[in-house]
Structures are given as structure tokens and as C-alpha cells.
User: Which sequence fits this backbone?
């Protein structure tokens, strides 16, 4: 994915996500992983998977807006 299309997150969001990844591994897998490993996992998710979630959000928004426009047309007066 080019840098132009890469999902951007703030430093604070990144830190929160890294913490969440570490907590997941600790709770669900009973493994302790460090900041570097968590950061690499987050980079993989952002680089390889995030665009799919983004595109799904765009498509869901499109469907919602289309339904809303159809509803708006139903209140026309003749």
C-alpha cells in the first residue's frame, strides 16, 4: 500500500492499540509480548488489513445514505 493510501493514526492511538495488542496476547494466549512485537503486529494490520475495514465502512455508509435519500424522497408532496 502506498503511503498516500495508508491509514493514518495519531501517536496516542498507536500507543493505545499497542497496549490493546499486548493485553490481548496476555489474556487470550497467556503470552507476554513486548512493545516491538506489538508494534510489528499493528504495522501488519494497518498495512495489510485496515484498507478492507475502511472500504467496508465506506460501502456501509453508501448503503445508509442511499436508504436515507430514498426515505427523503418519500415525503414529497404532489
Assistant:
Amino acid at each position: 500500500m502506498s503511503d498516500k493510501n495508508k491509514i493514518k493514526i495519531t501517536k496516542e492511538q498507536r500507543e493505545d492499540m499497542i497496549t490493546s495488542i499486548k493485553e490481548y496476547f496476555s489474556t487470550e494466549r497467556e503470552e507476554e509480548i513486548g512493545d516491538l512485537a506489538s508494534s510489528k503486529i499493528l504495522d501488519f494490520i494497518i498495512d495489510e488489513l485496515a484498507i478492507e475495514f475502511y472500504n467496508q465502512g465506506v460501502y456501509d455508509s453508501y448503503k445508509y445514505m442511499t436508504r436515507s435519500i430514498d426515505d427523503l424522497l418519500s415525503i414529497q408532496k404532489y
Remarks:
- The chain has one domain: 11-73.
